[in-house]
């Protein structure tokens, strides 16, 4: 491990690695551990430049008996997971959640001081934070590769590291913690790391709620307490009690786009689970408050509420506890399909908030401010953020499903065929029906099972309080009628609940037309009467990148946001942009702070929604200290983008990007869409075919089971290329664009100017640099050598690697660097440390893929499991599933 890496991180990796070695030795013998060390040593020498070592590694792995393949893969997989724990622990301890260049760490206190220097008054800063609406939307895809039972053990291992570090003066504590660590690592080693069944959408939702219970429940009041202290220093006042700059929403159990496993019944169950979990967590808070608030001094309002009692706060809290207990029992009875007659329950946020606020005001009026601003304030902050449902549940469905429902309805009523109507005809029909007082859907209408499911979803909406639900998102939205169709179905079936409706623009064509679609939508008086002066629009990162290539997609996303900001400004509508980002660069991933500040000026105006996906939820919110830092980063970035927005790009830069994106798009499409050898190459060289057996999540890997790349979801598309280390989706086309420009006079100067002065372009290059550092064409070559035997496909592979090499050269030239990641050593060292453990997994995976193909998919259960473990291990080592 590099000597530059922080000593505590190096020590913890050693402690965990040594413990794992002892566990494996106890199970399989010292001889097996020697084999693991031999493999690691050969891999490490290969990384240090010994030319023959990679061949030696492959020969050694091929010589292993079948009985060794599974335990070898498990050993390397387990070490990589332990390395991640050590790194997470380091980041939590030193508050390094995201990877920044030196001096670029966002600090909220420094930002508040800077904003005041630039003319913002303390009052304006408080109002900006009080009115901020940032929603972090927890989504289950790409679902966590690691099983939840192992995550719990890994969290306990992290606690052991904390105990060991703090036991310098108490050796007996250190010994106890070390013993517990050995036990937990042994437990992890003897636990199957691969699920045998896919998680259900309800399982995914439970996992999301567990993150709230185990981490965010503590991090949220801590974040607000730190924010209060900052504001008291800079503005002399606290954040308003009901302010919640950051809130949480979820897609787990609500995202039915292409996932037949998410039904109305599932959505209803997840909503009830949220109510039960919230009631259970608040019950714990209230029990603590009842114990602590033993004071007798109270104001007249509280005395009038509870009567003449000795301990007024405890009396009010007892009454509230009865309702919270009843709410928990009600939710449990509903989940179990049983009746409930246990008295009044808490239905809304205010029913919980108001009694607590009465206690707070009474304490302040009685001069007991110190007590009021203790644990009681923490609970008030939780209620403001989590409500009585923990998260707002979003609902997502494809536009074509709503179109199908209306087609069946218009045909059944003898009104014609909705599918055949023009956009103008559809709008006229939908607006007429939105304004009509009579019901459109017959009471006993016989429709298809698909349409019945759509209607049942709207019935769930009708049965809920609006505060339990977030936004209704329409994927593959293309026209104003797509939004009007949802509005009509919601009116017909959704009762009095009217959710915000967000079209999701996710292909290159849809992004280019997004501004025009929203312009036409907001120009319809019938729609404005319904939606008011707020409009939410979702920008899709994953599918646009798969559709057009990363560079063209990134520029299309930027231009779409600019157009949407201008259109909403002209119509007097407040715009909220919802960014559908994934964890990887190929799906819009990267440090949140840099991503937010690279958006167009005016697009982040105190309001933002963004997805947090899969394993990134655990990396950014899985532990209270890291969650606290992540929340600060979001608040800091949104405040800076709102008060001190980035500069408007120069016209010349826009022209440059238009041209670069055009070249990149042509190059990308020329390979992915137009080269007849590409799909066969992709299917041959990657583990895409075996991915369907890895129980990653509740969603199918493909939208359809036939067809080419276009039918594959963005997640497995990225995952498959990540496994081979070619990382193709995130860079293909960029090399041609930059190389073309560098060959022209003044090209290098303008690209460096854009890098230095335009956050959008600088951030794009940073992400590309990180991606190139994680890629490895030598490993990609090995996959090809082992798995491809057609000359045409081998020729395509050689061309792709040549393109990669050219991109590597031009990126270093633009950045004026000798090697990648010169200014972000933590990432570079993390990759270097992991490589000797990932390399054997690559070698074993390619070998197992070939054996699986030779056996026509009929390899033994142990070898099949070993193949799955290689996928999980590589994903853990690169910290990316998809």
From TrEMBL:
Question: Record's InterPro entries?
Answer: PEP_COase (IPR021135), PEP_COase_bac/pln-type (IPR022805), PEP_COase_Lys_AS (IPR018129), PEPCASE_His_AS (IPR033129), Pyrv/PenolPyrv_kinase-like_dom (IPR015813)
Q: Which residues form the active site?
A: 141, 546
Instruction: Tell me one GO biological process term.
Output: oxaloacetate metabolic process
The Enzyme Commission number assigned here is 4.1.1.31
Required co-factor?
Answer: Mg(2+)
User: Which keywords does this chain's UniProt record carry?
Assistant: Carbon dioxide fixation, Lyase, Magnesium, Pyruvate
Q: GO CC terms on record?
A: cytosol
Which top EC class is given? lyase
Question: Which reactions appear under catalytic activity for this entry?
Answer: oxaloacetate + phosphate = phosphoenolpyruvate + hydrogencarbonate
What molecular function does GO assign, one term? phosphoenolpyruvate carboxylase activity
Cite the record's note on assembly: Homotetramer.
**Family the UniProt entry places it in:** Belongs to the PEPCase type 1 family.
- Report the HAMAP family cross-referenced here: PEPcase_type1
What this protein is reported to do is described as:
Forms oxaloacetate, a four-carbon dicarboxylic acid source for the tricarboxylic acid cycle.
Full protein name: Phosphoenolpyruvate carboxylase
Taxonomic classification: Bacteria, Pseudomonadati, Pseudomonadota, Gammaproteobacteria, Oceanospirillales
Q: What is the primary gene name for this protein?
A: ppc
């Amino acid at each position: 491990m590099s000597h530059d890496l922080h000593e505590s991180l190096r020590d913890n990796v050693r402690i965990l690695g040594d413990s794992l070695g002892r566990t494996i030795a106890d199970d399989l013998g010292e001889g097996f551990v020697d084999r693991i060390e031999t493999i690691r040593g050969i891999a490490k020498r290969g990384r240090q430049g010994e030319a023959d070592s990679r061949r030696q590694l492959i020969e050694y792995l091929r010589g292993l008996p079948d009985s060794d393949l599974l335990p070898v893969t498990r050993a390397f997989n387990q070490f990589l997971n332990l390395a991640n724990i050590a790194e997470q622990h380091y980041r939590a301890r030193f508050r390094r959640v995201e990877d920044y260049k030196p001096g670029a760490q966002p600090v909220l206190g420094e930002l508040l001081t800077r904003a005041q220097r630039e003319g913002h008054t303390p009052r304006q800063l408080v109002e900006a934070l009080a009115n901020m609406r940032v929603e972090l939307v927890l989504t289950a895809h790409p679902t966590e590769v690691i099983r939840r039972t192992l995550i719990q053990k890994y969290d306990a291992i992290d606690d052991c590291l904390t105990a060991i570090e703090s036991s310098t003066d108490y050796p007996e504590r250190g010994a106890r913690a070390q013993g517990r660590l050995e036990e937990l690592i042994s437990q992890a080693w003897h636990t199957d790391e691969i699920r045998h069944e896919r998680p259900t959408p309800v399982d995914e939702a439970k996992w999301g709620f567990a993150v709230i219970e185990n981490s965010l429940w503590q991090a949220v009041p801590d974040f607000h307490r730190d924010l209060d202290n900052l504001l008291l220093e800079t503005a002399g006042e606290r954040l308003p009690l009901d302010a919640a700059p950051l809130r949480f929403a979820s897609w787990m159990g609500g995202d039915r786009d292409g996932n037949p496993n998410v039904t109305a019944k599932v959505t209803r169950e997840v909503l009830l689970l949220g109510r039960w979990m919230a009631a259970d967590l608040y019950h714990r808070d209230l029990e603590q408050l009842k114990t602590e608030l033993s004071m007798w001094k109270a104001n007249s309002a509280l005395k009038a509420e509870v009567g003449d009692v000795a301990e007024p706060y405890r009396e009010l809290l007892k009454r509230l506890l009865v309702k919270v207990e009843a709410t928990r029992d009600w939710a449990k009875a509903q989940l179990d399909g049983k009746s409930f007659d246990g008295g009044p329950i808490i239905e809304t946020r205010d029913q919980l908030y108001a009694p607590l606020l009465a206690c707070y005001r009474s304490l302040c009026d009685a001069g007991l401010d110190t007590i009021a601003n203790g644990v009681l304030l923490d609970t008030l902050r939780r209620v403001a953020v989590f409500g009585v449902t923990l998260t707002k549940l979003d609902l997502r469905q494809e536009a074509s499903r709503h179109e199908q429902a209306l087609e069946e309805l218009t045909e059944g009523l003898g009104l014609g065929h909705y599918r055949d109507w023009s956009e103008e005809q559809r709008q006229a029909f939908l607006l007429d029906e939105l304004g009509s007082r009579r019901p459109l859907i017959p009471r006993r209408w016989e429709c298809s099972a698909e349409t019945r499911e759509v209607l049942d979803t709207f019935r769930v909406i009708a049965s809920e309080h609006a505060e339990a639900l977030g936004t209704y998102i329409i994927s593959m939205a293309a026209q104003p009628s797509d939004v009007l169709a949802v509005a009509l179905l919601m009116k017909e079936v959704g009762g009095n609940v009217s959710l915000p409706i967000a079209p999701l623009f996710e292909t290159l064509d849809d992004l280019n037309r997004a501004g025009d679609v929203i312009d036409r939508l907001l120009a319809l008086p019938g729609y404005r009467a319904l939606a008011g002066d707020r409009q939410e629009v979702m920008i899709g990162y994953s599918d646009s990148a798969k559709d057009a290539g990363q560079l063209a997609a990134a520029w299309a996303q930027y231009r779409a946001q600019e157009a949407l900001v201008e259109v909403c400004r002209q119509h007097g509508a407040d715009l909220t942009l919802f960014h559908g980002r994934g964890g990887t660069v190929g799906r819009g991933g990267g440090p949140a702070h840099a991503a937010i500040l690279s958006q167009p000026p005016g697009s982040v105006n105190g309001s933002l929604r963004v997805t947090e996906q899969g394993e990134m939820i655990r990396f950014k919110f899985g532990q209270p200290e890291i969650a606290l830092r992540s929340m600060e980063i979001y608040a800091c970035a949104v405040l800076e983008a709102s008060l001190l927005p980035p500069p408007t790009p120069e016209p010349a830069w826009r022209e440059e990007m238009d041209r670069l994106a055009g070249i990149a798009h042509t190059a990308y499409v020329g390979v992915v869409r137009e080269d007849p050898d590409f799909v066969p190459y992709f299917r041959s060289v990657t583990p895409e075919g075996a991915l369907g057996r890895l129980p990653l999540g509740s969603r199918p890997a493909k939208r359809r089971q036939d067809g080419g790349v276009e039918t594959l979801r963005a997640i497995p598309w990225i995952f498959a290329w990540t496994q081979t280390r070619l990382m193709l989706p995130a860079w293909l086309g960029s090399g041609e664009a930059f190389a073309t420009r560098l060959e022209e006079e003044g090209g290098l100067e303008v690209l460096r100017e854009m890098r230095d002065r335009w956050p959008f372009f600088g951030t794009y290059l940073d992400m590309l640099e990180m991606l190139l550092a994680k890629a490895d064409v030598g490993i990609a070559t090995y996959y090809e050598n082992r798995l491809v035997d057609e000359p045409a496909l081998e020729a395509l592979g050689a061309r792709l690697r040549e393109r990669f090499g050219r991109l590597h050269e031009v990126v270093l030239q633009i950045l004026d660097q000798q090697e990648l990641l010169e200014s972000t050593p933590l990432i570079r060292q993390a990759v270097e440390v992991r490589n000797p453990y990932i390399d054997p997994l690559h070698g074993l995976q390619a070998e197992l893929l070939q054996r699986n193909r030779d056996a026509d998919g009929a390899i033994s259960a142990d070898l099949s499991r070993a193949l799955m473990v290689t996928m999980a291990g590589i994903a853990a080592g690169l910290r990316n599933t998809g």
